[in-house]
Write a structure and sequence with these properties.
This protein is α/β, with parallel strands linked by helices. The chain folds into four domains: 5-56, Single Sheet (N-terminal domain of TfIIb), CATH 2.20.25.90; 67-137 and 355-475 and 484-529, Rossmann fold, CATH 3.40.50; 155-349, Dimethylsulfoxide Reductase, domain 2 (3-Layer(aba) Sandwich), CATH 3.40.228; 589-699, Beta Barrel (Barwin-like endoglucanases), CATH 2.40.40. Helices cover 30% and strands 19% of the residues. It is built from 23 helices and 30 strands. The strands form eight sheets. A seven-stranded mixed sheet has the order 5-4-20-19-18-6-7, with helices on one face. The chain has a six-stranded mixed sheet with strand order 26-28-27-30-25-29. β1 and β2 (20-26) form a beta hairpin. α4 packs across α13. The radius of gyration is 25 Å and the shape is globular. The N and C termini lie far apart (60 Å).
Amino acid sequence: MVGEIRLGYTVCPFCGAGCGFHLVVRDGRVIGAERIYDHPVSAGVLCPKGAYAWKIINHPDRLTAPLKRTERGFRPITWREAIREIAEAMRRIAKDDPDRAYFLASAKCTNEENFLLQKIARTIIGTNNIDHCARLCHSPTVAALARSLGSAAMTNPINDVANAKTLFIIGYNPAETHPAIFRFIEDARRRYASVPARKIAIARFGLGLGETEFKMIVADPRKTMTAVQADIHLQQKPGTDAVLINAMIKTIIDQGLVDKEFIEKRTTGYERLVESLKDFDLDEASRITEVPRKLIEEAAIIYAMNKPSTIYYGMGITQHRNGTALVQALVDMALITGNIGKPGAGICPARGQANVQGACDMAALPDFYPGYRKITSENARELSHMWGLPVPVEEGLFSTEMWNVALTGGIDLLYIMGENPLISEPGYYRIMRALKRIDLVVVQDIFLTETARHADIVLPAGLWAEKTGTMTNTERRVQLFEKIVDPPGEARPDLDILLALLKELGSPFSYDGPEQVFEDIRRTIPTYRGITYERLRKKRYGIQWPCPNENHPGTPILHTERFPTSDGKARIIPVRPEVTVKTTNEYPFILINGRLITHYNTGTMTRRIMELLLKDDSSLLYISPDDARSLGILDGDIVELETPYGRERITVKITTEVPRGVLFVPNHFIDPPVNTFVGDIIDPVSGIPEYKGIPARINLI
């Protein structure tokens, strides 16, 4: 007899779009997924990852019991043993030197779990040494937007692209990385195409454009699935983004296309920007970026005049040693044209993971307290008064700095919740050596990941369908999802594990469950104050922060009247047009990396879904036909890829997707891991590594 079938609402665990769907459950077991046609993000459409996400719930590789490393490998232990041993180490470190502990939170975990982990680190242990994967993807966004706009988040909702007449996409490939977002872009193009438009010339530039015509400009070294659909593709050389954006800003200023009223009323620093570009040479910029000057000027003029205009950017902008500066340059361009704080006009960092926005909001960061309060003695006093416990005042280490400290014996305890740093952090073998130097490595995860195999204690966690909590998507939409099925074996939701640890540590504070933790979040973070579980249950698809009180509907568009800065104005800050990578005789290529539509980040989950592996199942070296011909290599050949940081064998894929001199490797696989080729050079402001511009060469085997 067929058991009863029920549906359970949930949020996709992969990218930051926050698509919603139903899980189909029979006899307590998930057997499929059902689309939701009225969801404001997914609207009945799921990408391959979302469609098959349910497959990992019942996967045979799931961890089902706590494990402890022995000389003969891992052996199962009881939860009591595991929690006691971890708590004992934490108590010892908290007493002797709290900064010898480090905590890695997770953008795959809920707001409640990330909030509690950072609170444990700060109040029980006494360290700001907590970070998560935003350090590797959008830490420049947090740094630049908080500094310039007063708020570190996407300014406009995803569906607002329908109100834009120009969309400038740079370092971002939504067709593959955020298909739900790209669907709205395609809808906008179709909507404008269906409206008859009288052709006009934009001002004095002779650019024929319809009054209601939608234009998409894409800047990307690769001919991605997004770039091939652009009206203008600026195919800049990797590492020259600062030159390209400054060239566009210079064009806008020289041609008198700035929004003088907006600049005067709502910004500061414009004069410094003009002065910084006084001697900037557009012909030289064209030579450096390898983009024709005419094309740069055309893109800049359309962005400035065919308004409203929106900027979308991704890790092709942030993952550089000058990532914070690059984000700032985009902010400057939006501000001088008045393209912010209006429907169809904004700056939109597309967040990579399901809850990376939320994890940042919760302050799973070493340089911010919850709600993006900078770590200062004044803010520490405020937070200590609120929590009734002292919090440390000294900033913690970026995760990208921590590994070198660990290599010198400076870290005694590393607690990792839902992260796989051996594959994601820069320098595969460096991270492996660092893990061996740490006295106690605890990994809390759903699978025995590459990192977990090097842990001392492994704790089996529940995944998103097995817990209740909230996540905040890339457009600041806070969504509640509730437990649908039980975790396998002895596995527990991450929050339950942290609460057990809190009890063992003898904490002066406790919670009954996720809703009580969320109440603490509301009390601590002003932008979440008006959001409650009760409201989220009624408004099923979420509320966008800031939401200051329980009668407030949420805020789709930020900065409509003023910026949340001390004087209400945004900061325009000049950016040096530096080039961050150059080819040499020794290293004649530039290596970049990125995502495929079928897989997600380090592949911890997607590499266990057979339907996705049938499309893409291994690392490949993308190379242009011209470069392959000059080297005498064929499609499918195995070569040695070498950078100053590492070398590994890899299979060749010849494609016109990359131009001459540029190589591309997807970042999801371990044969080899792409972080083998990455060094420890970081952006000094945000701590993000240089992933997107690495000198490389190919050695024939």
